[in-house]
Amino acid sequence: MIDRLTLLQKIGVYIATFFFLLFILMPFIEMIRVSLRPMSHLMTADFTWWSEDFSLQAYRDMWVTVPLLGRYIFNSIFVASAVTLITMIVVIPAAYAYARLEFPFKSLSLGGFLAVNMFTGAVLLIPLYRVLRSLSMLNTYWAMIIPGVAFLIPTGIWLLRSYLERIPRELEEAAYVDGASRLYTLRRVVLPLAAPGLIVVGTAVFIGAYAQQFLFAITFNNVREIQPLPAGLYEFIGYQDVTWNEMMAAALTGITPVMIVFLFLQKYLVAGLTAGAVKE
Amino acid sequence: MTLVAEGAAPERMQRRELSDRAFAWLLISPALLFILVIVVWPLAETIRLSFTDATLGGENFVGIANYAALFADPKFWQTVGRTFYWMVLAVSLKLIVGLIGASLLNAAIPGKALFRVLVMPPWVIPVAIGVIGWKWMYNGYFGLISGLLQEFGLVEDRVALLATKTSAFYSAIVTDVWVGTPMVTLFFLAAMQGVSKDLYEAAWVDGASRWYRFRRITIPQIMPVIVSMALLSAIWTFNSFEIIWILTEGGPRGATTTLIIDTYKVAISSQRFGEGAARAVVIVVLLATFSLFYLWFLNRVNRQYGAK
């Protein structure tokens, strides 16, 4: 057996872990603290850790200050879900092709897909704006969905491919010998076997789509009703008098639904996602 | 055996299936179409626009005028330098903090499962929301950081961290590191867990210290992951837009203006499409050069030390 940590070392690890997690969680702790205090007190008093005036008032007032908050929360989840769905529909066949088939320009085209990672929407905004305008997609959900999909396709293919490669070929060959067509084999043999991988990659794509909703939303959309949460709240941050406690309350409320779902998926996700990436 | 094989082959043919080649391209075509319309064509269009003086009003071909003006502008070179400094510093910090974090989370202590979950929140929320939290913390009047600095007597008065050039730049770095650290940490952690226990035990039997084992086993074993995370983080950090935009919009007085912010301001805020496009092309060329150089360098190192 390898040497265990001594008690002193353990204490050291705990202290270091505490500071590491403090750095990670500080903004959340502070957002919660601010959301629970009245604005007047936040603005006048010097900084204090603790005070007696904690209240949930901001969580009531925010619905008045940010009347579309419910819409923003819905929009964020809707856009991320739509991006995930379309990305997966596009990525599954492509990942299968890269995992299983031999064809000319295979590694070159895969490299091409991966090179897309070098671009972000920010570099291509001007022509993208024109593309979306000519497709009549500006100021619609599509303006946020379509570019989102394009930039997540490469990562999706990359992650899913390594999953599919680990499914034994024999099963597909057996199906083929039994006379199944290739598409049938893909749908009925490969996809069910790849289900855990599909969930992991789907969740990763969702996180990507959910995290990056700001740029396309502020650039391609100016309809408030369809704005996702970050872009919707950003509008209020720009004002001279920001009611910070309500903004924090709104932000925390907005991220809660996805956070809860994520808590249920996290074990599954992290193990799967990193296994896919690390194995390579 | 031979007979069966010979008999099977024609039967396959009879099913009149697509060849591997055609089937593969059929499967890839939707993904390819997306990339062509949303990435490749806009990229070509960006390159074309960079040789014009396009604005909302119209466009004329101006040759290399945009590039000439850009390269003659000392401010532009400052921005390039600042962008690389921003990238190198933020990526190094993410890798170091991520490595420390992963080692801590990898330690065999009670509670580690909980700690691993607690690293994730910044990763699973919209980046912009986290940055809004930081923006509050940096404010001078009632922000947490200014408050703490005063509490510990490090500063006399309230400090508005985003208001002065140096502090704004480093504040943006801290936020960028915060955004990027959870993912780096989790990937390093997963890689560490993939390292064979036998290696550690063998080294331990030989009397190797914990630190020695970390340096000589852990680091080399997870090097492939470190190397790919470094490249990915570098690209993302170089292109990082919303963190800086929400914190400072590139200010104060340009102190946090990286190439991507500069491009956005010129192209979108002031709608000088041609000049903006030239900046976008410079970004693409710089990143492509950087990535190729990085990969070439890796290849060389791998060959020198014998790839596993």
List keywords for this structure.
heterodimer; A: mainly alpha; MetI-like fold; B: 308 residues; mainly alpha
Protein model, in words:
The complex is a heterodimer of chains A (280) and B (308). In chain A, α10 packs antiparallel against α13 (244-279). The longest helix of chain A is centred in the last third of the chain and has 36 residues, at 244-279. Chain A has helices at residues 7-35, 39-44, 57-65, 69-100, 106-115, 125-134, 142-165, 169-177, 182-193, 195-211, 214-220, 229-237, 244-279. Chain A is mainly alpha-helical and 280 residues long. Chain B is mainly alpha-helical and 308 residues long. Chain B has one domain: MetI-like fold (Orthogonal Bundle). Helices cover 74% and strands 0% of the residues of chain B. Chain B has helices spanning 2-14, 20-49, 65-71, 74-106, 112-118, 127-138, 144-151, 165-193, 197-205, 210-238, 242-247, 259-269, 273-305. In chain B, α4 (74-106) packs antiparallel against α10 (210-238), α8 (165-193) packs across α10 and α10 packs antiparallel against α13 (273-305). The interface between A and B is large, with 102 and 103 residues.
Topology of helices and strands:
The complex is a heterodimer of chains A (280) and B (308).
Chain A: H1 7-35, H2 39-44, H3 57-65, H4 69-100, H5 106-115, H6 125-134, H7 142-165, H8 169-177, H9 182-193, H10 195-211, H11 214-220, H12 229-237, H13 244-279
Helix pairs in contact in A: 1-13, 3-13, 4-7, 4-10, 4-12, 4-13, 5-7, 7-10, 7-13, 8-9, 10-13, 12-13
Chain B: H1 2-14, H2 20-49, H3 65-71, H4 74-106, H5 112-118, H6 127-138, H7 144-151, H8 165-193, H9 197-205, H10 210-238, H11 242-247, H12 259-269, H13 273-305
Helix pairs in contact in B: 2-13, 4-8, 4-10, 8-10, 10-13, 12-13
